[in-house]
Design goal:
- By secondary structure, the chain is α+β, with helices and mostly antiparallel strands.
- The protein folds into 2 domains: about 5-85, Phosphorylase Kinase, domain 1 (2-Layer Sandwich), CATH 3.30.200.20; about 100-280, Aminoglycoside phosphotransferase (APH), C-terminal lobe (Aminoglycoside 3'-phosphotransferase, Chain: A, domain 2).
- The protein contains 9 helices and 9 strands.
- It has helices at about 5-15, 50-60, 100-115, 125-145, 150-165, 205-215, 225-235, 240-260, 265-280, and strands at about 20-25, 30-35, 40-45, 70-75, 80-85, 175, 185-190, 195, 200-205.
- A 5-stranded antiparallel beta sheet has the order 1-2-3-5-4, sandwiched between helices.
- A hairpin with a 5-residue loop joins strand 2 (about 30-35) and strand 3.
- Helix 4 (about 125-145) packs across helix 8, helix 6 runs antiparallel to helix 7 (about 225-235) and helix 8 packs antiparallel against helix 9 (about 265-280).
- The longest helix has 21 residues, at about 240-260.
Length: about 280
């Protein structure tokens, strides 16, 4: 209990929850486990950034009726929420080895649900994120790192840059995006059914989520399977999906090189593969 912040304890008690165990903390949130009066378990989550709290709660609430973490209580002034604990434990229950198709179906369901909100003003626009965050960072890093990267890597970046520069969005696909579809941002219930958790929501073309998922869900493993599933379920042409995936690879590749992340060689292989198959599809 000593490791759980006083703010989380007080807010939990207000909701008749008893915080029992500190779980995790990062730059984006602090997590603790709590028990209900009947012995059930929930997750208490606190955000240093109030806007991130509001957006994550809004996204989860918009996905009512699909497998996703449920918002049980929220105190926006304190930036704290009580969320359902998928699978009854942090990280959820064991996932099926072939969970990819199930996750794809949940993503598609979330996008269909999100389209009911034609223009959701509470979320950042994907267009702004691409212009102000992704492209600007890529330009800065390409200039800053150009002398430290191998010649082959610099050539890859130059070849991949047009994919990022020429991205366009389709209005009919605009929806609430999860925005952060790593494998750890899904969790399985006791039946092995995946749920969406920990969104970093945006509003824009669904192709972004599909491209992010295709690249990052299991980096370097099953990329082609996810691209095929995404294309079939979302009705997005393979070439378009590969262009978006390549653009996200470019962003990740430069970041991994800058921070000397061990995933850099894997990301480089994914980017090269996407570049080759994208050219073949012309």
């Amino acid at each position: 209990m000593a490791a759980i912040s006083e703010r989380l304890v007080e807010t939990g008690h207000k909701w008749s929850l008893v915080p029992t165990k500190y779980h995790d903390a990062g730059h984006a949130s602090v997590l603790a486990l709590a028990e209900t009066g009947s012995g059930g378990k929930v997750l208490l989550k606190a955000w240093p950034d109030p806007e991130r709290c509001v957006r994550e709660v809004a996204a989860l609430r918009s996905w009512g009726g699909i497998p996703a973490a449920r918002v049980l209580e929220v105190d926006e002034e304190q930036s704290i929420a009580a969320l359902s604990l998928v699978g009854g434990r942090p990280g959820g229950c064991r996932r099926h080895h072939d969970d990819v198709s199930q996750v794809a179906e949940v993503i598609q369901a979330a996008h269909l649900q999100g389209r009911k909100f034609e223009e959701h003003q509470g979320f950042p626009e994907l267009t702004d994120y691409l212009d102000e965050e992704v492209r600007s960072r890529v330009i800065h890093r390409m200039e800053h790192l150009k002398h430290s990267m191998p010649t082959a890597a610099r050539q890859l970046l130059r070849t991949a840059w047009p994919a990022l520069e020429s991205l366009t969005q389709e209005k009919h696909r605009r929806t609430i995006l999860h925005g952060d579809l790593y494998q750890e941002n899904t969790a399985c219930d006791g039946d092995g059914r995946p749920h969406l958790i920990d969104p970093l929501p945006l509003y824009g073309d669904a192709v972004y989520d599909w491209a992010f998922w295709s690249v990052y869900y299991r980096l370097g493993q099953g990329t082609e399977q996810r691209l095929t599933l995404a294309s079939r379920l979302a009705g997005i042409e393979q070439r378009e999906l590969r262009s978006w995936s390549l653009a996200l690879c470019l962003h990740g590749l430069l970041y991994y090189w800058e921070v000397t992340d061990s995933r850099y060689p894997t990301m480089e292989k994914v980017a090269l593969s996407l570049l080759a198959t994208r050219e073949d599809s012309r």
